[in-house]
Amino acid sequence: MPAYNVAPYIRETLESVFAQTFNDYEVILVNDGSPDTEALEQALAPYRDRIHYIKQQNRGAGAARNEALRAARGEFIAFLDADDLWLPNYLEDQLSFLQSGNYDLVYADALLFGDSPLAGRTFMETAPSKGEVSFLSLVTHRCAITTSGVVTRKKLIFDVGLFDEGLRNSQDFDLWLRLVRHGARASYQKKVLLKYRCRKEGLSGDEVNRIARQIRVYQKIQDSYGLTSEERAEVSRVMEKIKAMHELELSKAYLSQGKFAEAREALQKANRHQRSWKLSGVGLIMQVAPQLLRRLHAGRG
Fold first, then answer.
1. Confidence (pTM)
2. I need a labelling partner for 281 at 20 to 30 A (CA). Which of 44, 169, 190, 213 fits?
């Protein structure tokens, strides 16, 4: 469990762990150089004899999880973000499912709650998992994994080299891909076994930067995964879609600032990455009546 700016949530999260019907586990919490360390440690005080607490300089969630993995003594690893919650039967159900199917990695559905219009829906309603979990189904988002819902075999994570600490975002996605390409058998339950907290101030940050970090992960996939021709074609297709989304978000940002020339250029780039009559239409309006488009965009916000 990596901890960064989670002092208000950590007690509820730990209580959800200690309420598990399965109780043969250890809790490893890594303080990743959090600016709220004083408040965090006050919140942790009643639990210190029940957890393995590690402090490190801020190096990112991937590095924090790697520290916990090195300290872990069990055969299986269950990841949990420090503001999410497990339902009481989470570990029991997940381990039973993993062992009955002889899987190496399993994940479950989550109820969304917190600061989001999606609160009350489930993760798989908004990001469905369909069919077999494979490299291609993950990379094309036919299957989507939430990290707090993952239980996996520890040995395989070490076999593929742990989390990539050079990725400050989507390092979990990168690890799932490497595990599956290494031969890990992965599957999922459509049971809601946890609660995923949506926070405005979460790690993802603003949309432009979030998508830019996503592009970096896909660039790594293209450059270092040794893709087959089929895989490379699929990754390239998804990459073009993500680049179009990035330019579209840039265009919106420029438009809100009244930078119409930059907004038009970004929109044109988005249309080159992924041809769309809607984007072409917006581009035409931007040329003819940019102020009107800016007012319409501001009204939608």
1. 0.85
2. 213
